[in-house]
Amino acid sequence: MSAKVAFLGLGVMGFPMAGHLKAKGYDVTVYNRNPAKAEAWVQKHGGRSAPTPAAAAEGAEFVFMCVGNDNDVMAVGAEALKGMKAGTVLIDHTTASADAARKLAGQAKEKGVAFIDAPVSGGQAGAENGKLTVMCGGDAAAFERARPVMDSYGRAVTLMGATGAGQLTKMVNQICIAGLVQGLSEGIAFAEKAGLDADLVLDVISKGAAQSWQMENRGKTMHQRKFDFGFAVDWMRKDLGICIKEAKRNGARLPVTQVVLGYYDDVSKAGGNRYDTSSLITRL
Ligand SMILES: NC(=O)c1ccc[n+]([C@@H]2O[C@H](COP(=O)([O-])OP(=O)(O)OC[C@H]3O[C@@H](n4cnc5c(N)ncnc54)[C@H](OP(=O)(O)O)[C@@H]3O)[C@@H](O)[C@H]2O)c1
């Protein structure tokens, strides 16, 4: 349990994920661009912080990162690789494109480092409770080595296929969520206009065929217009943009996803960029 690991990027997701690694007994070094967050993490969890990704990664058997978008992944990943030795594993929990995963995997391979794209689902609460779904792409042997470490914060850690397959699976996840949240918004807004008790409606229909994670976890708070549950509108716009770009390449049609992306653009323009994704109802 004392393997040396590094965690780069202590945002809403990374901060608690790195905390679970420390709690499981791993020897953790963290890096965050804004050093105040790294200091706060060390104060809370112990362990060490380092001033650069390369310094944090030095001597680590597993290096994890959870940053923002493709550009951030490429920048932080390239820096981390400078500190990594052959035989170690770089794991990226950022939601990014499959292309970025393949590019970074190529750079890692040149150094003899294995790369796993491993985006997560489950939100801030999943990261805090250690119950994330982790969708992985990459080499099976490297995945088997990294899996027990990821189990520290993962409820379901699964290898989906070769490099990029984790990111492609996360795209499916986001496509499935986008249209559903719009449907849920329309249903709740309709219930309000119809003069129904929206909470009672949600209690009743969540026991039938309309049930969903979004309905159970976000329905009532959407009715209360509370939108502070972590996964920001601007992250969703990034994710749906990635899905649409990939669909142009593979020929899949995403008519509803495309429309919902436009709706999220509206919410963002109206000042809701840091609201969570259930804020689609504000347009109605
Ligand atoms: N929040 C969720 O519910 C959720 C759920 C699933 C997946 N995700 C995905 O997980 C990733 C992180 O999300 P989050 O909510 O944790 O974001 P966040 O709170 O905004 O944190 C982003 C982290 O990445 C760091 N970072 C970004 N760009 C960087 C760069 N170029 N160089 C160095 N550090 C950089 C930030 O450093 P600073 O502190 O210095 O800015 C921060 O530590 C995103 O790809 C998101 O789509 C999020």
Report a brief summary of the structure.
The protein has 284 residues and is an alpha/beta fold.
The distinct bound ligands, ions and cofactors come out as: NADP nicotinamide-adenine-dinucleotide phosphate
Radius of gyration: 20 Å
Distance between the termini: 51 Å
Percent of residues in beta strands: 5-15%
Structural class: alpha/beta
Gross morphology is globular
Tally of helical segments: 12
Q: Give the biggest sheet.
A: 9 strands, mixed
Fraction in helix: 40-55%
The ordered H/E elements are EHEHEHEHEHEEHEHEHHHHH
Low-confidence stretches: none
Average pLDDT level: 97
Protein architecture, described:
- It is a single chain.
- This protein has 284 residues and is an alpha/beta fold.
- The protein is built from twelve helices and nine strands.
- Strands 1, 2, 3, 4, 5, 6, 7, 8 and 9 form a nine-stranded mixed sheet that branches.
- Strand 1, helix 1 and strand 2 form a beta-alpha-beta unit.
- Helix 8 crosses helix 12.
- The radius of gyration is 20 Å and the shape is globular.
- NADP nicotinamide-adenine-dinucleotide phosphate (NAP) binds next to helix 4, strand 7 and helix 6.
